[in-house]
Amino acid sequence: VGCQEVCTGTLAVSVSQKWSPTRYELAQTMIADAEHLNPEDYRDLIHNQGQAIEWYRGMVCPCTDRRSREQNPDCALCAGVGWYYQEMDVSVFKALVTGVSPFVEYAAFGEIMSGDCIVSTMPDEIPIDAPDKVVAPTDRKVRHSEVVVRSQSGDTDALWGQNVTEVIYLRDLTTVYAEIEDFLLDGDQIDWSPSGSTPTAGTQYTVLYQFQPTTYKCLGSLPTRRRAVAGTLLPQRAFCRIWVPETHRS
Questions:
Q1: What span, in angstroms and rounded, lies between the C-alpha atoms of 144 and 114?
Q2: 132-171 burial code (b ≥16 CB/10 A, e <16)
Q3: In what order do the strands lie in the sheet with 236-242?
Q4: 205 in Cβ contact with 170 (< 8 Å)
Q5: Domain co-membership, 107 together with 228
Q6: First vs last C-alpha separation in the chain
Q7: pTM greater than the 0.90 cutoff
Q8: Which CATH number fits the domain that encloses residue 62?
Q9: Which domain range does residue 205 map to?
Q10: pLDDT digits (tens, 9 = 90+) for 185-240
Q11: Position 100 confidence tier, pLDDT thresholds 50, 70, 90
Q12: Are residues 74 and 125 in the same domain?
């Protein structure tokens, strides 16, 4: 059976001569849509369906030694991490924040972790890239488990996550602890002030909880086949991971 290949700038469709008229008409419709692709429709989609975000451009801190690449651990600007972030004014623009799926295109960023997301923007508005930081409040809740060391002094232990909404389970090697009776959730801390059971100071216990992440660090941009159509830019997608400042534990 002969086969005719119909090509456009963005689409190639093989049309069999024995296709029914309905399928052939569908192929022609797809070709027509490709020929009349309007990249500005993507901009309208992001502006209409997206959300306001805060964008912080990441830069190497001046405390970094040019030869050893080591940072000053006492640096007041970067807190010893080697990067500082300058807030950029993007108040008039928006971004689409969506979850991720374990597709091959994410392989460059390693194992997908709970809370990872894709931030889609127009590159002439918010050209986000690694190692930038994004603050994007959403209703997404992430479940997280961590090992906490009971404080040697005081009634509270800080959790890694920010905006903690619920403690699901808490135990050490021998005891399961009950909220209200043994402990309270106080912001992003476990409060052991109730008169119930408590782990011994300096020992470890596990906490399973939910929190609502708001701050993400960009690990890099996802590859794209085309950056522009007829000179008009297409959206870019940045792979982002939950970021919590080291000072959150202090």
A1: 8
A2: bbbebeeeeebebeeebebbeeeebbebbbbebeebeebe
A3: 83-88, 54-60, 133-135, 215-221, 236-242, 117-121, 96-99
A4: yes
A5: yes
A6: 72
A7: no
A8: 2.40.10
A9: 142-211
A10: 999 999 999 999 999 999 999 999 999 998 999 999 887 766 766 667 788 999 99
A11: confident
A12: yes
Q: In the structure encoding, which two tokens stand for residue 247, read together? A: 């000072």
Question: Distance between CA atoms of 53 and 142, rounded to whole angstroms?
Answer: 19
- Which residue is it, tokens 């090697």? 173
Residues 204 and 217 occupy one common structural domain: no
135 and 161 inside one domain: no
Q: What is the dihedral of CA 144, 146, 55, 127, to 10 degrees?
A: -80
**In terms of Cα–Cα distance, which of 10, 33, 28, 29 is closest to 229?**
10
Based on the structure, what is the number of domains in the chain?
Answer: 2
Tell me whether residue 34 is in a domain.
no
**Above 80 in pLDDT, residue 157?**
yes
Indicate the length of the chain as a whole number.
250
CA dist., res. 85 & res. 117, Å (int): 20
Q: Residue 127 belongs to what H/E stretch? A: none
DSSP strand pairing (142-149 vs 204-211): antiparallel
Three-class SS state of 167: strand
What is the number of other CB atoms lying within 10 angstroms of the CB of residue 196? 13
Average the pLDDT over 64-75 and give the result: 91
* Whether residue 146 sits in one domain with residue 67: no
